[in-house]
Specification:
The complex is a heterodimer. Chain A is of the alpha+beta class. Chain A is built from 10 helices and 17 strands. Chain B has a 4-stranded antiparallel sheet with strand order 1-2-3-4, with no helix packed on it. A 4-stranded antiparallel sheet of chain B has the order 5-6-7-8, with no helix packed on it. A 4-stranded antiparallel sheet of chain B has the order 9-10-11-12, with no helix packed on it. Chain B starts with a helix and ends in a 6-residue tail after the last strand. Classes of the chains: A alpha+beta, B alpha+beta.
Chain lengths: 450, 425
Amino acid sequence: MMETRQDDNLASRRRRDGVTARLLWKEACQAWPWYLFGALVAVLAIPWMLPREMYGWRGQVRDYPWMLVTLAMSVQGALLAAERNRQSYANTHFSIHPERMPAFAFGVNLLGVLLLGLAAGGWFAMRIDLVLLAIIMLYFTLAFLLGYVVAAVFGKSYAGILSGIPLLMLVYPQLIDQLRIHTTFSFDSFYTLYEAMLIYGGLVAGSLLAVGFLLLSRRLPLLLRRAGMVLILVLGLFGSIIIQMLLQGGSFGGDGDHYTIAEQRLATSAGTRVVEVVLDYPPKPYYTLLYNNYRAVREARQQVTMPYLLLGFDGPDSVLLIGQRRWEGRMHVVRWRLAENRLEPVFDFRIRRGALHAGLADSHSHLASLRPDGRYAALQLPSLLGETAADLWLLDLQQKQARLVLVDQQATSLAWQGDSLIAGTPVPKKISLTTGTISRFSLRLQEVRR
Amino acid sequence: MRRLLWKEWKERWLWIALWIVTGAVTTALGKGQFTCGEQWQTTSSWMFVIPLTAMLAGLGGYGSELHGGRATFLYSRPVTWKQLLAAKLLLGFVAVIGSGIVSALAGCLLLPEEYHSLITPHSLAVGALIMAGFTAGAYLLGLAFSTVLPGVAGGLLVLVGWMAVVTTVAGLSIYKPVFSLILFIFSPLIAGFILIRFGITLHSAARLRRFILTILTIAALGFILDRTPLATMLVNKINSWGSKVAQELFRDNNFSPDARYVYLNRYVGDELVPCLVRLSDGRFSFLDSSISVGWLANGDSLAAYSGIDTKYPRELHVLQWHGQELRTLRIKNSGYLGLKYHALSPDGRRLLVGGETVLQFCDLTTGETHVVAKVDRAKLRRMVRRDKGRLNGLFWCWWQSTNEVGYLDPFTKKRVLIQLSECGG
């Protein structure tokens, strides 16, 4: 009797092992091309990510393999999700729980994606920083999981495949930028890397919980199961955003623009009149504009909550500032009357929300300049139309008008020449102050001895 | 033909709709098809999402025919390969035009108001034409990849493999690919066409073999052409930027505020060389190394050498134009000083440069430097640690008069005035 029971247990274990092995074999047969191509492309892409400066088409070409791996992972996730409800050989021939086969397939593929992330990011991360391995693995896992969850929610494989597109649009460029910037070990990039990891982590955790919910909620109506998955995914995303906000200590103190604002300094040639921005430590929800006339021993202070750019001295006793609150669709031009220590609005104009914040977050993209006579000013802020480029505004301070003159280009300097503004774009531009017409600023060069 | 077109539409209307909607949405967000301004290119990489969707639409092209002998069945009917290809191309052509028009409309109607003044028929036409070129190319490539393995996923797999090889060829450092790369990029079109003409009814493995073989043959032709003088000529042609005055290409144009001078990086061949230009007569001089440049009110340039190269140690230089010549004045012991905190004397002859522990001035006619004030670094660091988040040191300096300078004492924060004669000036 005892022997019979032992035999039964042994036979049952062997059967179970046999099923597991067959399921594993099925997954291996179905999914091997994905992982082979994925691993090949990902590993090929690593060396191309190492150089610190990559300009031109070569740098662009090097970005594509991981882009394609992202899409491949989304497709794999989506196809897997679409397959889960199909009548399969395993369901028909093995006496297993109906959710076992999809759960097993999901687990094996998830493991495959993690290994791919390890293969893709391992060597790269070991050379630079092991933290990068986490973000690379999280990223590929996210592509797979989003493909799976979206396909499961909509019940169509192409919906999951399409989920890879927003991932490529929104997340991929940031990942590549962070990996590139991180090689320079700047504090800012380190900061945004953890920020991004938190969001990826939130989405991965949300997706995993959503898949878990799908597996365990077999008895619930289909609509409820799908709604539950969406809810869990959204909760994961918002949870990570809230944690990030809490870690930053509110929206004001943790912003990158806080540092850029404090970097500003306006001084006359002899250094006698100086305007600076003073921050308190730890950061407070305001900062102080500090004016010093060292020669005449005069000082003025203004506590402000709006982020301002220092445009320039508008006369012996006034300074022009330009500012925008983060969620406001208008830019304010303000004159600081130093004698009375009073901020006086000059005019405001319509501009997209968050334009100044975006400019301050990327210290290379914002420029402000005041013509020495104070009649015109120019302001460059990141463009809505591009990603790395900027829009140039021309401000007529007498007519109190602002005009957008250049879009989707980035100048590295601004200069005033007679009735024209010169923008230091890659092909320098000359902008007429009166008509706003743009012409190419021609540089005719002849070499001299040095 | 009408039935074939209807078949194509029924099979792929969702991909085409996705393509057009993606174009419209990305353009309305300002990131897609170029709609306003004077320039011919945009910096938005989102723009490539539209060709990507076009490629996905193309990838579904022959995929459905490769399942379960559908192509054999189709060719058993009075349908020729030309008609089938024409139907697929016609659908793509209509989608290219539709996407261009819908995207342009979305840009006109939905972009924020401030951009409307820059939207012109010319800018719309240019944007639509550029995008049409990209999407048509992507669609054709997608169609070519769809001839190998069944389904969109199959096409995507072939695409991934092809991209892996293109990346390897592009990144080869041992030799410069020219023809091999160009031919390799276009090879799927030829390989796809050959399969459409001769191999659609074959087995998947046979199609894959033919596809790879055609691509490799074309690449081999490219490798052979790379060894000919023609390749060298092409490389020289591509890398001739900046070697002619008519084809100037610059980077990082840093104009002085009064637009009298500009510091820029100039392309010479495929290298960037920094140079300083006087705009009145276009005279310029190449500079030795990559530097940061600030401008003084008298027109001189204050240049900071980065010190990466031991040949050019970290140091401040003043670059002055004297007639036809550019002179360099090295400020001694200035490696630790930055460009931000400096003051020019009222007569423009001396420059005061503030730093963390040393304040010094430089005579711009002789190049002599004199220390105005010095503080103990360790004592200052202790103070900085106590006063977290604040910059401290001898940065705040000014000219009280032509012969008198002032600075803020870093410990007491009081003004200190010093006659130049006291510090050897």
